[in-house]
Amino acid sequence: MRCLLIALLVPVVVPVVVPVAAHADLRFAIGNDTLSGIVTRTPPYDDMGFTNDIDLAFWRPYREYLVGGEVFDRWITQDVPVGGLRRDVVDLVATVERTFGDVDTVTPSLRVGPSFTGNIGGRWGQDKFHRVCQCGRPLDEGLQNTYEGGNQVGLLVDARVRGAAGLPWIHGYSYLDGRASIGSGVSSFEFMTGAQLDLSYGRNRYGAHLELGVGRYHVSDDRFSFEGSYRPGWQAQRRFGVFYARGRVRADFEYRANEGGSGEPIGVVALTFKQAGHTF
Question: Which phi and psi (to 5°) does residue 136 adopt?
Fold first, then answer.
């Protein structure tokens, strides 16, 4: 399984790390329960549920479309006194979207590809992360260390439609997102509505957004539903974030309450780089 995953990742990662002039936009994001402390000032250090997300995506224009790929890696863990189990979910998908309109827009998008679940490096990654940041237990001090059952592969199909209307500097938006994981993984439905503020001063751009909505999640087996991770049924959701951009670089922070129906928050920090010759 691990060799298969590496073979699939190489053609996705290599084009965006080779030191040549960038020909695609690139976004790298880390989501971590500790980062929620930027907002709450009481970060959860329990290492339960969703402990870390790594999200790497790239895209470039092709005629009227944006086409690209994405790798999303989530580490899910169980409280040590309960059992100390863990599970990784890695989605490797091709992406395509098209926007109709200018200020008032409709944007349908599609993500399709395999979803890998099981032991896919999360234990090793979390151990190294905790040793560097000194913000949690490494393996030799009691970090969750047990994967139950073997690895699995499923097919992920995710479709989204987003609509926005307003002025160039402020607009409202809503989106519907439906995700089906066939064979293994997580299926979901989300409806979110919100407002986006987008301002500029000279070469600087900055803004904020707030969105509210509901979501529903379904897991292929109980190994995705440890305490603090995916819960069944309808869930209220709330997210807000800020960004700053200058030249080819944009930095974002987003706070996500009740991430994945977990009842716990997660903070996400992201950097986006425009392709060569383009700016925000």
Answer: 180, 180
